[in-house]
Fold this sequence. Notes:
By secondary structure, the protein is an alpha+beta fold. The chain contains 4 helices and 8 strands; from the N terminus they run ββαββββββααα. 25% of the residues lie in helices and 39% in strands. It has a 6-stranded mixed beta sheet with strand order 2-3-4-5-7-6. A two-stranded antiparallel ribbon has the order 1-8. A hairpin with a 4-residue loop joins strand 3 and strand 4.
Amino acid sequence: MDxxxxxxxLDRLDDGLTxxxxxxxxxxxxxxxxxxxxxxxxxxxxxxxRAEDDFFNLSFHGTGNVxxxxxRCLDDMEQPISFEQQLNAxxxxxxxxxxxxxxxxxxxxxxxxxxxxxxFIELAIPIRHVHAPGKCNPAMIRALNEHSAARSGxxxxxxxxxxxxxxxxxxxxx
Length: 174
């Protein structure tokens, strides 16, 4: 994907609403050199509202799927995502970012939203992502079960931290 298509020429936008739409695929994630997500298909709509005083309100809406490693078995899995984000932009002397306000250099007038969109996608991924029950790599699940059984003690005994055991005794005295 050519990231040039994700550069919005704010200077040329008319007052009022401008709607943009992008379909992002694996080439997008490769082009932005994404550290955590390398594959996916995400549709992004951007509504840009230009006010008379060269102030811009951008609304990002995205839905799709990304490929991330399963937290349990480490195999790739498809994770559905959806996001809605707001951003304001204005013209200034030089490019800068501050929370929800981006200042775009007046002499350029171009806002590159490629990395912003990637960050919105990354923020939409749940903290914990695992396959549906029964869909994890069976070999990895067997290995996990063997290791967790070895950690829990001999012959089904579960080792309890002595501090918790002491607290448990206090609980039963009443």
